[in-house]
Write a structure and sequence with these properties.
Layout (H helix, E strand, L loop, with lengths): L16 H8 L27 H5 L9 H13 L44 H14 L13 E5 L5 E5 L2 H6 L10 H5 L19
Antiparallel strand pairs: 1-2
Length: 206
């Protein structure tokens, strides 16, 4: 929704959040390359996520030196708490990095739209997915006169993806002039470069 009248609000957040957080965090582990990389501050046990099996499956260029590989592994261990191999291991952004988002809307009348029917055979899967997201904090209970319908889509490798139909919300949401680049446009800048890591530009809602 394009809306020209501004209420004067500004995005919240801490500009120099790294400096602020670093003053309160305590280093939990001494590493051999702390003079090169930001040391470990999380309380997660070393190797609890980066298991030997997962390390063996890492695709690391064979031409790097032994020390380069050691630095890479120490970097991964230092950031181990922020590496998720499944949904249960994902985390949430700290409010210093990005505070809870406020969706600005125009004045509107609450809509009433029916939900998509879920087959009985998939109800247990749907309930498990909702409980899992509630436990991780990606969804939360709320009071409201309306809701967005949702449905399940089968994944290529098995399982299901929960899709939230936000068409009705988008109709009353005030459009922000500073839109981010599309994933395709953003990734064009890396064309011809040597690949050093894998990033999922598409899965932004997770």
């Amino acid at each position: 929704m394009d809306y020209s009248i501004s209420d004067g609000t500004k995005p919240r957040g801490t500009r120099y959040w790294i400096d602020k957080v670093m003053k309160t965090e305590k280093q939990t582990e001494i590493g051999p390359y702390d003079h090169w990389i930001t040391p470990k501050f999380s309380g997660i046990a070393r190797g609890s996520r980066l298991t030997l099996e997962r390390i063996e499956n890492l695709i690391i260029r064979t031409s790097i030196t032994l020390q380069e590989r050691e630095v890479l592994m120490e970097l991964l261990y230092a950031r181990e708490a922020y590496i998720a191999f499944n949904f249960e291991e994902i985390g949430l952004l700290r409010p210093e990095v990005a505070p809870p988002q406020e969706i600005r809307t125009i004045l509107y009348i609450a809509w009433q739209t029916p939900g998509y029917p879920i087959p009985k055979a998939l109800k247990s899967d749907a309930i498990a997915m909702i409980r899992e997201r509630y436990k991780k904090g990606t969804i939360e209970p709320a009071y409201g006169p309306y809701r967005n319908p949702w449905f399940l889509v089968a994944k290529n490798k098995g399982g299901y993806r929960l899709i939230n139909d936000a068409q009705w919300t988008n109709k009353v949401t005030i459009r922000d002039a500073l839109l981010p680049l599309s994933a395709d446009e953003f990734s064009e800048e890396f064309a011809g470069c040597q690949l050093t890591c894998l990033l999922d530009f598409i899965s932004g809602y997770n």
